[in-house]
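We treat protein structure as text, and this decision shapes the records that our systems exchange. Because each token names a local backbone shape, the row as a whole describes the fold. For reference, a complete record is included directly beneath this paragraph.
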Amino acid sequence: RTLANSGLTVDSAKETFKAINVNKEQSNLLDVRIDAAAIALTRKAYSGPYVVEYCVCVVRGDFFRFSVELK
């Protein structure tokens, strides 16, 4: 099921970025050396008081790009 099919909409979200050095498992998955620079992202999206998305990602430091549009 999707959020739209459930009648839910995302009305707020919080995303946190943190600089890290990858561990052995992450280095294998990302094809980088152990201790390479990366960005850890954590995101929670809410529909009212309910968490409808929780995401933890690790992005290679050499691939990371941040862009934001504010209206």
Q: What stands out?
A: The two ends are 30 Å apart (CA to CA). The chain has a mean pLDDT of 92. The helical segments are 3-6, 24-30. The chain is about 15% helix and 45% strand.
